[in-house]
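User: Structure tokens for both sequences below?

Assistant:
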Amino acid sequence: MADYNAVIKEDGPWWIGWIEELPGVNSQGATREEFLENLRSALEEAIEMNRADARAVAKGKFEEASIRLGSGEIS
């Protein structure tokens, strides 16, 4: 599980926002709660697509490693 930062704002009748760490992950909603749910869904989909793309490019035998920012920890 990781935390991501979102820039959010109310723009007329809509809530809109973007995930700072992943370009292209953005959403909108009629309420703040709807917007946050939509943005979370967009983030999950983007991560799954990126994961599938990375595994497809790696082909054959590969390993995965967890990398935690700020701690210098790689496992």
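Moving on to the next sequence.
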Amino acid sequence: MAKSKNNKPDKKNSENLKGFDIKVNEFGEIITSHKIDQINEFLDENVKDKKLEQELPSEEE
């Protein structure tokens, strides 16, 4: 018997994302229920940017 997969999303931020809806129309355009500025603000607060956390290599010659 095969294992059933748990495809439920993590409900950690569910209250912050309440009312958020995203769709892609037939032309490939992304349609959201929130303004892009609000989405970017949420991502800045809740998602760590791995590229910014890496140490920059020193330029020793």
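User: Anything stand out in the second?

Assistant: The first helix runs from residue 36 to 46.
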